[in-house]
Amino acid sequence: MAEPTDTERTAIEDTQLWMTRAVVGLNLCPFAKAVAAKGQVRYVVCDSSDPADCLAMLRDELLYLANAPVDEVDTTLLIAPFLLPDFLDFNDFLDMADSLLENLDLQGELQIADFHPRYQFAGTEPDDMANHSNRAPYPTLHLLREDSIDKAVQAYPDASQIYERNIELLDKLGAEGWQALGIKARVCE
Predict the structure, then answer these.
(1) Cα dihedral 173, 179, 180, 182 in deg (nearest 10)
(2) Which domain holds residue 160?
(3) Mean pLDDT of the chain
(4) Is the separation of the CB atoms in 23 and 30 below 8 Å?
(5) d(CA 66, CA 60)
(6) Class of residue 48 by CB neighbours under 10 A (exposed 0-12, middle 13-18, buried 19+)
């Protein structure tokens, strides 16, 4: 395997910081702590700005995850620092990502969650703290195993309440509290 470039190394380090301080540290995803602690999160960087290149890499990573032993790799974060800095463009791109998942006949086995530095839920203002639950330093596709999600949801009481709890937590944290985490949006245009 080739030595990571400076861009790849920085993107992975920034994403790991976000995972440690926000996703696990704030418990935004109660299922993340265990896989992170076991070293079962795969970090991969697509350094192209071309959506076709990212889709090709997504294809490879979906197939890799589908065939990797779960005790070695449970989930993958495909980080794309230069891909679609405009959130609406990125949101449109997700249709192609979902079509790829379907074309590979992996629906029901894997799913794709999305994160973006400018993530904005419908009906919210850009500075609404709720948006931070899906904000990562870079555009990121999170590849998850359906079986792992099912097991985690069974083990976690009131999994359906996670979203509401996150909004309450982020509102209480506020913009200053988020900034204190040291997580920066790294939109590369």
Answers:
(1) 130
(2) 6-180
(3) 93
(4) no
(5) 10
(6) middle
Tens digits of residue pLDDT in 46-78: 999 999 999 999 999 999 999 999 999 999 999
Which residue is associated with the tokens 């500075």? 127
Residue 28 has what pLDDT? 93
Does some domain include residue 112?
A: yes
Alpha helices in the chain, H assignment, sequence order:
6-18, 32-37, 51-67, 87-103, 146-155, 162-180
Report d(CA 142, CA 112) in Å as an integer.
5
Q: Which two tokens stand for residue 148?
A: 């792992």
| Total of domains in the chain | 1
Strand pairing report for 75-79 and 140-145: antiparallel
CA-nearest of 148, 7, 1 to 65 is 148
- Cα–Cα distances (Å) from 172 to 33, 131, 166, in that order, read 22, 14, 10
Per-residue confidence (pLDDT) for residue 177, from 0 to 100: 96
**Is 46 inside a domain boundary?**
yes
CA dist 126 → 90, 96, 117, 135 (Å): 15, 25, 11, 11
What is the predicted pLDDT for the residue at 150? 86
